[in-house]
Here is the input.
Amino acid sequence: MSAERGQRRTRTGFVVSDKMDKTAVVAVERRVSHPKYGRYMKKTVTFKAHDEENQCNAGDEVEITESRPISKDKHWRVTGIIRKAK
Here is the structure.
């Protein structure tokens, strides 16, 4: 039986920390309009993402995809490195 997976959320962000084993902390930034004043603000959320081969380094731009819970805090996976840090 081949059940189709639903559409999974994907985000792009920058790796903030790679000090944990097989885990990267990814900061995802988005622009939100202030409800009253209309000015755009930056909001940042950090996600812990599973990095099986420990390929990510701090400063890399990566794409992460939502997945099943891997640990208590980790339910995203690194699907690809868009740009390596200099």
Notes: DSSP finds no helices and five strands in the chain. The chain has one domain: 19-83. Strands lie at 10-17, 23-33, 40-50, 61-66, 74-83.
